[in-house]
Design a protein that fits this description.
2 strands; mainly alpha; 45% helix; two-stranded antiparallel sheet
Length: 138
């Protein structure tokens, strides 16, 4: 399963620190629906590509379907507060709609742990004033 990890601009190793955040769990049901119901975009809206990732992806396309890389469209940056809003919406759902988190044993505990890690990282991002995007790793 691919990983979905945050990338920060400017790159600051202190933002991630000792935490490891793979947000792939939050991509898909029930998470996308929870976020949409809360008036937020699903996680996929925050995914961007570096120019080399974009070039690698478009090499497989026929020449007439290729387009140039446009950073504003292909790799937008977002304020870290946006991820904290996502975490708050998921935490509210975890508390108020526990039936949403029964897809596997101890799903609610796994979600709570990932929310804790994600909030720690993104609070540091707010403190340091860095932007983020999400990157998909194979």
């Amino acid at each position: 399963m691919p990983e979905i990890v945050p990338v920060f601009d400017p790159d600051d190793p202190a933002v991630i620190g000792e935490d490891y955040v793979d947000l792939a769990m939050f991509d898909g049901p029930p998470f996308s629906d929870i976020l949409i119901d809360a008036g937020l975009a699903p996680l996929e809206a925050y995914i961007g590509m570096s120019e080399w990732q974009f070039d690698e992806m478009t090499q497989a396309m026929p020449e007439n379907m290729r387009r140039p890389y446009v950073p504003e469209r292909d790799s937008p940056w977002f304020p870290p507060e946006a991820m904290l809003e996502i975490c708050a919406a998921l935490r509210t759902a975890l508390r108020e709609q526990p039936e949403q988190f029964t897809g596997w044993p101890k799903m609610d505990e796994h979600v709570a742990d990932l929310l804790d890690e994600t909030e720690r990282v993104f609070k540091r991002a707010v403190e340091r004033g860095v932007a983020f995007r999400l990157s998909v790793l194979p």
